[in-house]
Each structure stands twice: as C-alpha cells, then as structure tokens.
C-alpha cells in the first residue's frame, strides 16, 4: 500500500475532517471514494461521447 500526501489549507482541512467525523468515516476513505466516483464519472462520460459522437 502506498501513501499519498494532500496539502490543505486550514479551512479545507476543517471542512473535510468535520465531514469525516459527521459520517463516522476515516478521511482517507472519504477521499478515496470521492476520487473513485470522479474517475467513474469521467469514464462514463467518455463512453457516452463515443456513443453519441460529440
């Protein structure tokens, strides 16, 4: 397993950590899920573009 460092300003750090606490999830899990969803959305959009021929 590798480690990734993300630099956040104080406001973003508080926002993200508060969100993680509210949802009782580790921040790392929330960030991984968000990135996974973003990648899946982009992949789906590429498939749609191929079908529709933008």
TrEMBL record:
InterPro entries: DUF6290 (IPR046257). Pfam families: DUF6290. This is Transcriptional regulator. It comes from Nosocomiicoccus ampullae.
